[in-house]
Design brief:
Blueprint lengths: L1 H4 L2 H24 L3 H7 L3 H33 L4 H11 L5 H13 L3 H25 L4 H28 L10 H35 L2 H33 L10 H34 L4 H29 L12 H42 L4
Subcellular location: Cell membrane
Main location: membrane
Membrane topology: Multi-pass membrane protein
């Protein structure tokens, strides 16, 4: 919407700031990764829910404090404009609620409500678009601040809906947060490697956005923000699939599951079919996505869209493989393979940026993610029984 009705500066401000805040979104996802497994393996669903909510509240408070330190440090390096500061504060307003939102989503998934959660997500997306439009054209806020306000408002509304839903499913007493140190430790253990990977991963992207904002024009920064936004949207699809896979595998008898070759072939074929189908659907919709995001259609921008979709699809293979290994009891090492995107992708992308623009960055990310998937498959073969 900013690319259509906002200025280039507004798009660049929002693109840069939202990537900085994305660090805390990914941290929330990473630290909540073990909730479905914990819930399914707990004998008391209500108690598990209360402990998970207490854990989520603790994460939210910690991330809120961390976000302030993060902002102060970056502002000291390159001063934020007043509008960038306002957008950052507005988006961070939703950080406190985000861990609880994600945890409640995981619990509803574990309760067998995955399809209804998808419907709710679709409704929240439509509400977000409507609120974006309303605030963009019928408020005194700047374009970038209007979009940030709508984003945070919808996150809070979504949390309230999920709380009411959990209360209806398990009783309102299930919403009373409980801080239980053993549960906190167990949930943190599930997410340790994901936390490190997510932190390095998104911090690398955020600092790259920050660097581009300081050194390049608003058009490039805005297009880079769109490129990452498409990757992030696709990433949500693959994370949702990985969560469903975790729930399915964690319900199998004789946990943790054994990595038998036959079972692995079946699961791998399922993963490949889902990722390939999602990529094909994205490719079919790519001209429409190009028009929606850029406001026009040309070959250069179509290549950027297709590169973003392919980057996300290859990463989806890695995410699903990591989910399978996590249920099998290997929670530490597999997520670290995704760091190849930072170690290989960012330096290679910076080098190719000057020669091929954002498409060069996309090629670098594709190469890095492919290396990650290959390394994971080699690692997995060593564990097969």
């Amino acid at each position: 919407m900013l690319s259509w009705w906002g200025s280039g500066v507004a798009l660049a401000d929002y693109a840069m700031t939202t990537q900085l805040v994305q660090v805390f979104v990914v941290l929330s996802l990473a630290l909540s990764i073990g909730v479905p497994i914990y819930f399914n393996q707990h004998s008391d669903g209500v108690l598990a829910t209360r402990q998970a909510i207490g854990y989520a509240c603790l994460i939210g408070i910690a991330l809120l404090a961390l976000s302030w330190l993060y902002f102060v440090g970056l502002d000291a390096v390159h001063a934020f404009s007043p509008q960038q500061t306002l957008v950052y504060v507005l988006l961070i307003g939703g950080v406190l609620s985000l861990p609880c939102y994600i945890v409640l989503n995981h619990i509803l998934d574990a309760l067998g409500k995955s399809r209804q959660v998808i419907y709710l997500t679709a409704i929240m997306t439509v509400l977000n678009i409507a609120l974006n439009y309303q605030l963009l054209f019928n408020s005194s806020l700047s374009a970038q601040a209007a979009i940030a306000t709508a984003t945070t408002a919808v996150r809070i509304i979504g949390l309230l809906v999920l709380m009411a839903w959990i209360g209806q499913q398990l009783g309102t007493h299930a919403l009373r947060a409980t801080l239980h140190p053993p549960a906190i430790k167990k949930l943190l253990d599930f997410g340790q490697s994901e936390l490190l990977t997510g932190l390095v991963f998104t911090l690398g992207f955020a600092l790259l956005s920050f660097y581009l904002n300081a050194r390049f024009d608003a058009k490039l920064v805005g297009e880079f923000g769109i490129f990452l936004n498409m990757i992030n949207l696709s990433f949500v699809v693959y994370v949702g699939f990985a969560s469903a896979l975790v729930i399915y595998l964690s319900k199998l008898p004789n946990q943790p599951i054994k990595l038998h070759r036959t079972t692995n072939r079946q699961i791998d074929w399922l993963i490949i079919r889902f990722v390939a189908g999602s990529l094909l659907a994205g490719a079919v919709l790519s001209p429409l996505l190009c028009w929606l995001y850029f406001g026009q259609f040309d070959t250069k921008q179509l290549l950027i869209v297709l590169a973003a979709l392919l980057v996300a699809a290859i990463d989806g293979l890695a995410i699903a493989t990591i989910a399978k290994l996590r249920v099998a009891g290997d929670t530490k090492k597999p997520p670290l393979f995704r760091l190849l995107l930072v170690v290989v992708g960012l330096p290679l992308g910076g080098w190719l940026l000057s020669m091929a623009g954002l498409f060069g960055v996309g090629i670098a990310f594709i190469i890095a993610n492919a290396c990650s998937v290959i390394a994971l498959k080699v690692y997995q073969k060593r564990l097969l029984l």
